[in-house]
Amino acid sequence: MTVGSNLKADHRIVRRLESVLRVMAARISAGERPPAEDVEEAIRLMLEFVDSYHHVKEEAGLFPVIQGTNKEQQKTVYAFLVEHEFGRRAARRIEQEYASWLKGEEAAEPLARFILTYADFIKVHTAKEDEWFDAVDGKLLSGMQQKEILRRFAQVGTLGPSTKEIFGRRVRELARKYLKK
Question: 3-class SS at 2?
Fold first, then answer.
């Protein structure tokens, strides 16, 4: 497995979450109230899988190596870091809007809008990164760098070696409920 293929595998899970989020946002906009545990699980997945697992793999494993060896890629890495911060802030805002919505303090519209914004972020961000990962695997990393980064990836997460599978299963459970697939 290469660095790029490893991260693209994460993206397949993230894009499935994106699809779930779009359906949740549409239902909330239509006045429905999805089960609280489903919305809470979606928020946890944004915070735990996307941010604390996937983005940390990139930020602690891939980006430092690329920045240290290829000065031409520093602007690209910086742009991805800015996008990661946007995703973190959007997820936290969804968490806040959801708490307000549960208390009846706010209308459903802000919650649905922020969920949809996060889904749009996932779509655009993963597409850009997937294209860049092809260059990462094709010409930006040596074989030794690939091995070192994959070693760093293995150290990310607190759920052990099957972290990706656990998150994938959690997303599949939500997808069964919301995507009918």
Answer: coil
Between CA 15 and CA 121 the distance in angstroms is 10
Q: Which helix (H) or strand (E) holds 164?
A: helix 163-178
**Exposure string (b/e) for 21-51, b if CB count within 10 Å is 16 or more?**
bbbbbebbeeeeebeeebbebbbebbbbbbb
> Would the pLDDT of 148 be above 90?
yes
Segments making up each domain of the chain, as ranges: 3-178
The structure's pTM equals: 0.92
Enumerate residues 6+ apart whose C-beta is below 8 A from 147: none
CA–CA distance, 149 with 38 (Å, rounded to integer): 34
Q: Name the class of domain 3-178.
A: mainly alpha
pLDDT, one tens digit per residue, over 122-139 is: 999 999 999 999 999 988
- Give the pLDDT score at 163: 82
Q: Residue 133: how many CB atoms within 10 A of its CB?
A: 22
